[in-house]
Amino acid sequence: MVRFDLESDRFSIVMCVYDTVYNMGVSEHIRLFDGIARPYAWFHRIQTKRYIGILRRHLPAIGLLPGARILDVGCGPGSFGTAFKHFGFSVSGVDGSPRMASIAASNGIECTVADATEGLPYADGSFDVAAAAYLAHGFSREHRVKLFAEMNRVTSNLVILHDFSPGDGGIPFFTVTGFLEILEHSDYIAFRQSGYDELRETFDRVEVLPVDRWLSWYVCHCRDACE
Hints:
CATH class: Alpha Beta
Number of domains: 1
Order of helices and strands: HHHHEHEHEEHEHHEEH
Structural class: alpha/beta
Radius of gyration: 16 Å
Strand content: 15-25%
Largest sheet: 7 strands, mixed
Number of strands: 7
Helix content: 40-55%
Shape: globular
Mean pLDDT: 81
């Protein structure tokens, strides 16, 4: 029997970046995720199963109505969105990487190619919920502000971010997660320190719900929904 460890598998995924041949004329961010799209796809089922477990435990606290329209922002291969579909929600995806979007579509997520930091191609209030997993911490503060504003604009109710929990400092570098965040040059330490305050600048109310080791849901109540 083959046993997959999500931490070790993520290590394999990220190391594939270094073997990627990049095309010119495409943003660094999109090149990165185009390059690792196929390895991410290998672990779609494993990650989806993990998300389903988290949603099963924590969705009751959110109180989403059956059939709610959910936009999975930065959906990658569609694992987070697929987990929401498992519970009967209507899910669409958007990703800046054409390869990721194609894989998400093959996994049953209707997906649009667009960079959320440059504007989402949806009218105001098109969705009940905008959700994103492991997305916000990868951006600089400047781009996070744009991301939060767009997610707030396209939803009429909630924004849910599945990301690193608030806290000071980094995850121990000798763990796989900590080591990978260093390799990826992500802004996760700054996000842990200031992400909550950044969210409060955009949203009316932000609740932090711990869901896993080092991970929380940031449940953000949209200002327009409260007026």
